[in-house]
Design brief:
9 helices, about 200 residues, about 15% strand, alpha/beta
Length: about 200
């Protein structure tokens, strides 16, 4: 592993396991896609495009993890878990996206396709610089921009940290998942055609 950018280019093989049963579940309207990766990897863009194209309910895990209208204040763990379970139980077809290892692990028990977006640190940092205003997280673009340096430092530590939101936990979740899954390591491989 290149600590600055994740897997080296000679390690950047695609991991894609796509047996026919997931194709059948997609065609029957039971698509349940779980998208995860580092901040700035393109999860929200990918998930929104897939939700729009396929008519899926969309859950950004940020919306259940953080207290509404407050910056960096987490909701109680039990409330977060209950919100995630409620969404899963109430939707027949969905796309869920986020970086929270414990929630990704919980949702993976229900998904029909696991998607790991892992384009490397440089791509994530560049994407964060182009991030549009996220009104569900910040009252203004100016307020969001005041948090950018902190976000970039956190993103830069993705391959070194060992917390539940790190590359190491994401890698463990992906490798252990026995169902259909795909890992995208190049932004061009998923930016234009999510879910295809």
């Amino acid at each position: 592993i290149d600590e600055a950018n994740g897997p080296r280019s000679n390690e950047r093989e695609q991991h894609c396991h796509q047996p026919r049963p997931w194709l059948i579940s997609f065609s029957l309207g039971r698509m349940k896609v779980l998208v995860f990766g580092n901040s700035g990897s393109g999860k929200s863009t990918y998930a929104r495009a897939l939700a729009t194209r396929e008519g899926l309910a969309h859950l950004d895990l940020d919306s259940v993890v953080w207290e509404p209208g407050k910056i960096a204040v987490q909701r109680p763990r039990e409330s977060v878990a209950a919100s995630l379970q409620s969404f899963i139980d109430s939707q027949a077809a969905w796309v869920i996206e986020g970086c929270y290892g414990e929630l990704v692990r919980a949702a993976s028990a229900h998904c029909t396709l696991l998607v790991f977006l892992n384009p490397g640190m440089d791509a994530c940092l560049a994407n964060n610089l182009r991030r549009p205003w996220e009104p569900h997280k910040y009252a203004s673009l100016e307020l969001q921009n005041t948090m950018l340096n902190q976000l970039q430092a956190w993103v830069a530590g993705y391959y070194q940290r060992k917390d539940a939101w790190s590359y190491w936990v994401h890698r463990e979740i992906f490798d252990a998942f026995a169902g259909p899954k795909v890992e995208h390591r190049e932004v061009g491989g998923y930016a234009a055609e999510p879910g295809r």
